[in-house]
Amino acid sequence: MKQNWIRFVALFLALTMVLVSGIITTTSSFHASEEGQSSGTPGEEVEIATIPEPVVIDEELQKAAEESVPIEEAVNKDDNKAQDKAENEKKSEEADKEKKSDEDKLKEEEAKKEEEKTVITFTASEGGTVSVEKQELLSAETPVAVEAVAVEGYKFVNWTKQGTEVSTEAAFTPENVAADYVANFEAQDKFPAQDFSAVVAGTQINAHAPEGSFPDGTTMNAVEVVSQKVVEAVDEVTEYEVEQENVLAFDITFTDKKGVEIEPLIPIELFFSNVNIEADTLEVFHLDDVNSNAESVSQLESNNGEVSVDAAAEFSLYVIAGGRSYAPQSMYHYALIPGKDMDDYSVSVDDTWFGVGVSTVEGLKPASEYLAPGKF
């Protein structure tokens, strides 16, 4: 384009110089002719001035003019180039707009995808941590389990959502629904040595729990139980006759600070005093309930109004039963041998045992090998 303008300028200068030169020459000739007519004599020939030679144009400009294209063509070419440039710029702008539009669409799609994700958060209260704090899931994805871990001195309680319990397991797998879950912890209870006491039906009940048996704040509860079923259950396992007036039964339980019934983690000791039973001996039995079998949990002791259980591990019914002792007695029992008359034998009695005496006749063993102490 620059060369076309140079050619145009050169051509324009050349034409201008030719035109100016012609005008100057014509004007000079006209003036000279007028002067000759006015000053010359009649019949005298007038000398006409010759036309000067054309002004010589610079060779480079001349060459540029000769090689140049017509002005109209050059202008048309420039217009075409300007139009092409404008069209190219327009296309470039449109391409940029399309590119920007594509980028915007991509961003919108990504933002839409982000909006479609389900966000689930997990936090821990004081005393613990959680294995995962946040999960971002698409609708087709499955949540992973989150573990609640208590720090030293604390224990895991439960998972809650907006204050509502959703799980009591430390490992929790939520649903694919946006929610905020909280893992709750509480300080672990201390298990100090504790002593308990109660008075029921005039009987003093004391319990000593060594360290590690019950959490701090545990309470002992004891009530009297009167049941013929309990009397019968105890009578079945004793060697003495048991009657209602010789039985005291207590339902003994322990509860924690929240009122939840608990059992000792290690066995504890029970002591009963001021036991008002008229009997020669006292013994303690344990029953799970009034319909269960009785089990002896203490030694048979002389009745001095006190009896104890060294290692009580389960708590429900504890029964104190009293028994009677009997003085040794001697009884004659004649051993009969087929074909022999009773009068043919002299009988001696082994009276070191109360109960049935066995005659020591030929072929029979001493009574001590046949009998043992028992009721009769």
Low-confidence stretches: 35-44, 327-337, 340-362, 370-376
Structural class: alpha+beta
Radius of gyration: 65 Å
Please indicate the percent range of residues in DSSP E strands (runs of 2 or more).
25-35%
Described by strand count, sense and barrel closure, the largest sheet is:
7 strands, antiparallel
Distance between the termini: 144 Å
Q: H/E series, N to C?
A: HHHEEEEEEEEEEEHEEEEEEEE
What is the structure about, briefly put?
By secondary structure, this protein is an alpha+beta fold. Helices cover 27% and strands 28% of the residues.
Task: Describe the overall structure.
- It is a single chain.
- With 376 residues, the protein is an alpha+beta fold.
- 27% of the residues lie in helices and 28% in strands.
- It contains 4 helices and 19 strands.
- The chain has helices at residues 2-39, 59-67, 71-116, 228-235, and strands at residues 118-124, 128-130, 134-137, 146-150, 154-161, 164-167, 171-172, 179-187, 194-200, 203-209, 219-225, 247-255, 261-262, 268-273, 281-287, 295-296, 301-302, 307-312, 317-323.
- A hairpin with a 7-residue loop joins strand 15 and strand 16 (295-296).
- Helix 1 (2-39) crosses helix 2 (59-67).
- It is rod-shaped.
